């Protein structure tokens, strides 16, 4: 049975009208999203679109060598699988659960059908997609021009925006893969933030102690992304 209150923890689903709920609500399935689960692989057809509620999903680009880097992070503000309703069906990236939690999933054909109705939900999905593209482009610029410390701060802030709470549970290896650096580099950067009193860092767990201090320490990239999300999506989705 569909858990309505749980499903509406996702901001896009919460924006559905009563008519839209009547049309697609009972097709939504609650799913557990364990840490490290791969939701889709590069070049493989997607069976579902995922709407995280308490989980965070990382979109990674994986090189032929196996090295990877995060290009976007998606949580309760969005949907994983925009390629489905944009007509691509596949994508060269990989979707991996960054922080374990729950989500709702919708069959690929169902979200295509809903998008093709050209109604309010389609327009909301398109605005979200533009915001997601802005995050991807800003991430690429940040990874090229800013220090690892600043990148880590940006990543922490974006991740916190996707969660209810101030704690992330994940492996050092996954963090390193997402930031595209060695595990030792992530550890050193995290320990510097801990020494500054901004976070508490233990193996597999990061607790943000001073969000304002992290905001002051990061580059302009976080603010650019945040402004775009706030501009493109209704005020209720930015909360």
From TrEMBL:
Keywords: DNA-binding, Kinase, Transcription, Transcription regulation, Transferase. Residues 12-130 form the Cyclic nucleotide-binding domain. It comes from the Bacteria. SMART domains: cNMP. The keyword Cell wall biogenesis/degradation does not apply. GO terms for molecular function: DNA binding; DNA-binding transcription factor activity; kinase activity. CDD domains: CAP_ED. Pfam families: cNMP_binding (PF00027), HTH_Crp_2 (PF13545). The keyword DNA-binding applies. InterPro entries: cNMP-bd_dom, cNMP-bd_dom_sf, Env_Response_Regulators, HTH_CRP, RmlC-like_jellyroll, WH-like_DNA-bd_sf, WH_DNA-bd_sf. GO terms for cellular component: cytosol. This is cAMP-binding domain of CRP or a regulatory subunit of cAMP-dependent protein kinases. It comes from Giesbergeria anulus.
């Amino acid at each position: 049975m569909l858990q309505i209150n749980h499903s509406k923890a996702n901001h896009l689903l919460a924006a559905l009208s009563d008519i839209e709920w009547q049309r697609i609500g009972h097709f939504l399935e609650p799913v557990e999203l364990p840490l490290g689960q791969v939701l889709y692989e590069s070049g493989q057809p997607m069976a579902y679109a995922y709407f995280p509620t308490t989980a965070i999903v990382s979109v990674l680009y994986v090189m032929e060598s196996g090295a990877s880097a995060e290009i976007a992070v998606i949580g309760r503000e969005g949907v994983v699988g925009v390629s489905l309703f944009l007509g691509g069906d596949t994508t060269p990236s990989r979707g991996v659960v960054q922080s374990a939690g729950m989500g709702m999933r919708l069959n690929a054909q169902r979200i295509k059908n809903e998008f093709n109705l050209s109604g309010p939900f389609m327009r909301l999905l398109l605005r979200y997609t533009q915001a997601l593209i802005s995050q991807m482009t800003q991430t690429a610029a940040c990874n090229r021009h800013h220090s690892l410390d600043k990148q880590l701060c940006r990543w922490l802030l974006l991740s916190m925006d996707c969660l209810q709470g101030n704690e992330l549970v994940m492996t050092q290896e996954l963090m390193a893969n997402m930031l595209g650096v060695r595990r030792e580099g992530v550890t050193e950067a995290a320990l510097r933030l801990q020494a500054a009193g901004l976070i508490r860092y233990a193996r597999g767990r990061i607790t943000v102690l001073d969000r304002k201090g992290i905001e002051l320490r990061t580059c302009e990239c976080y603010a650019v992304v945040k402004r775009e999300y706030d501009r493109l999506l209704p005020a209720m989705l930015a909360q």
